[in-house]
Amino acid sequence: MIKKTYNRIIELSDDHKQITLPDSRYYRRNGEFYPSVTYVLNSYPKGKHFEDWLKKVGYSADWIVKKASEEGTATHLLIEKYFKGKKIKYLNEHGYPKMDPIIWQMFLRFVDFWETYKPTLIETEVHLFSDKLKVAGTCDLICEIDDKLWVIDFKTSNHLQTTYDLQSAVYAQMYKECYGKEADHVGVLWLKSKSRGQDNSGKRIKGKKWEMYESPRTQEENLEIFKSVKRLFDLENPKHKPATTSFPTVVKRSV
Asked: Can you tell me the distance from the alpha carbon of 46 to that of 42, in angstroms, rounded to the nearest whole number?
């Protein structure tokens, strides 16, 4: 299901004769199509490490990427249910696991973060846009921790990437434009960290196998880098429009 709050390109005509398809790459804003932040960041250079990895895994690359994406999506869905106050079970009525153990483990790491630091929830899965940057996206979490406003994105990858810094910075900028509030902190809640436990100094938010990561660069620096990536994206995609918008569900040959 596509949430209405996403404002993705999805509509159903009253007579059910035409469907406007959802497109994860674009959002509609005042008659314009804004590309998603993640779609723009596909233009960021992958780097030598990615090229070496691609050579190593060969034809398995697509399967690995797909599996990682599915793990991330499943973890996000569990977190959504958690926020809605639903009871979430790992085993089904027959005593068998309902999901891959790694998905459940990453979800439990999120629960550990939430119950340990007890944030005040402001928004979750909130649709945002920027008329300055001409992009849109959906931020995982807006909350307050110790009276400080945080803009947070969840990540379930094996390694942190520079694009995460840029993505989070843009989310903070979009939140500022949409709600008029500037974040005190912009972070990535990394649910596959190598962290061994809490920070005894109390300076960092972290636990066993998870941590809150903040970019070593400033918000302004990350936004400037994103703008450079966006210029490359615009160069290769001069017309911002979904590849597929709609298709009829009823067809009849005209006589």
From this structure: 9
Q: Is 95 inside any structural domain?
A: no
| Coil, helix or strand at residue 97 | strand
**Count of domains forming the chain:** 1
33 inside domain: yes
112 lies in which domain range? 4-87+102-248
Whichever domain contains 81, its CATH number is 3.90.320
Q: Of the candidates 222, 140, 166, 160, which has an alpha carbon nearest to the alpha carbon of residue 39?
A: 166
Q: Do 174 and 127 contact (CB within 8 A), yes or no?
A: no
Q: Which token pair is 156?
A: 């379930």
Alpha helices (H) in the chain, listed in sequence order: 37-40, 48-57, 61-83, 101-117, 162-179, 219-236
Q: Per residue of the chain (255 residues), give pLDDT as tens.
A: 333 444 454 454 555 444 445 556 788 788 788 888 999 999 998 767 767 766 777 878 777 778 888 999 999 999 999 999 999 999 999 999 999 999 999 999 999 999 999 999 999 999 899 999 999 889 999 999 999 999 999 999 998 999 999 999 999 999 999 999 999 999 999 999 999 999 988 889 999 999 999 999 999 999 999 999 999 999 998 877 776 666 666 777 876
For the entire predicted model, the pTM comes to: 0.85
Q: Where are the alpha helices (DSSP H) in 84-205?
A: 101-117, 162-179
